[in-house]
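Handout, section B. The chain below has 301 residues.
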Amino acid sequence: MISKLVWMQLAADQQKKQRHEKPQFPCSAYYTDWHKGEIDGVPWHWHRELEFMMVKKGAVRVQFGDQEADLKEGEGFFCNTRFLHRVMMRDCEVCCVNSLVFDAGLISGGPGTIFDGKYIYPLLSARALAGGAFYLSDHRHLEILGHIQAAYENCQREANGYEYEVRYHLAKALLLILEGNRALLSLAGKEEPQMERLRGMLAYVHTHYASAITVSDLAGSVGICERECQRCFRNFLHQSPMDYVRQYRIQMAGKMLLETRESILEVGLAVGFSNPSHFCKVFRSQMHCSPARFRKSFEQN
């Protein structure tokens, strides 16, 4: 079964709240339908599951770990477990993306198996391997893209035995990724301490976004100096701490506009903006429309 991803539900520490429809088959398939001037991407998040994504229409920019990639129709992406990543539409009016989020145990069969010890654990524990982009121009990537597409199509059809087919194609894609990244498997993730600090600071933002937040508050939440705080955000998210705070507040405002009947003023106050006109200005700069127009466009859809 394919589910539409409209608004991602996140935990306080920015871990995606993943609930698979079939717990015995921990693989969820999603599609998105983004439009310029509305929701135009998936915010920074992480999850314990692995993820494959393919662009079906338009173009996106994917950021993962300290890397980024621009992908067009037919190209795709892999994200390893526990790495922060986000996807934003890029230079287009409409963008459609398909994704598969699945537990590694679906492929490995669990700890202690030869599949886990020889193939899956080395991939999950490679902290130098945040993920990877797959391009149509690279012949080595075409086979991986084919397996991602086949797994998604089997989830869509749900024919008898489709679970076997999905598991097979996901396993083949992971094996190809493992073989193509052997050089990274033994490398330590140099940025892992910074990544952990960043997760802690994001958790602080997601818990206190309705209150006043300073760079000093963020740095103090994980016991580092303000300069190191700035460095963590710049190295991984490619933005300043306060830019991220504003961005997250607007994400939460969009969620409130869709899910409640609170007034624009009440929504702004609830997400940490004391000045209504400033809230509308920041919202428009990020979402390319006013809060009222944003709410109305989804009511019409």
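Note. The chain has twelve helices and ten strands. Compare this with the example in section A.
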